[in-house]
Design goal:
178 residues; alpha/beta; Rossmann fold; 5-stranded parallel β-sheet; two-stranded antiparallel sheet; globular
């Protein structure tokens, strides 16, 4: 499938979760076998080009794409979790949201020192979660210099946030607005 055919599988839902927001819903994309396979292949090609030795995905939709990319490349998958979800001692990072803070955690034993880890997620908007994930993976000893995303909302500046910490962001598609 072409990138434009894959893009056509993303549904736009107006006024969700708040008035004025155009929500980009990937549900039709992940329900479309060929579209999902083509998306995973596109992401995997970029992760391979980056020299990925492991793939990390942020909860929750990053698990869908990240795990699939890891399988396609024959690599391990590192889940970047919300707090309290891992049964072992973790390391974590707090990060700012528009209204408040949130936290991400990982099992530090899932990363080898110096291992090149590529971030995978469904969407990059402001870049806050991706930045926190990259910083957390680096705290665990990973080299993180690439993030691959299905969707970019460039008006929200997330790729610039990642670029400022030395992480190149690549996206299959982009939509204007927020």
């Amino acid at each position: 499938m072409t990138p434009s055919q894959i893009t056509a599988l993303v549904r736009t839902v107006p006024d969700f979760p708040a008035s004025g927001v155009l929500f980009r819903d990937i549900t039709p994309l992940i329900a479309h076998g060929r579209g999902l396979a083509a998306t995973v292949s596109w992401l995997a090609d970029r992760a391979r080009d980056a020299g990925a030795e492991a793939i990390a995905g942020m909860e929750a939709r990053g698990f869908i794409f990240g795990a699939a990319v890891a399988v396609e490349l024959g690599l391990g998958f590192v889940p970047v979790r919300k707090p309290g979800k891992l049964p072992v001692p973790t390391i974590g990072i707090d990060y700012a949201l528009e209204y408040g803070t949130d936290r991400l955690e990982i099992d530090p034993g899932a990363i080898a020192a110096g291992q090149r880890v590529v971030l995978v997620d469904d969407l990059i908007a402001t870049g806050g979660t991706a930045r926190a994930a990259a910083e957390l993976l680096r705290m665990a000893g990973a080299r993180v210099d690439r993030g691959v995303f299905v969707i970019d909302l460039p008006d929200l500046g997330g790729t610039g946030v990642l670029s400022a910490i030395g992480v190149e962001a690549q996206s299959l598609m982009a939509f204007p607005g927020h």
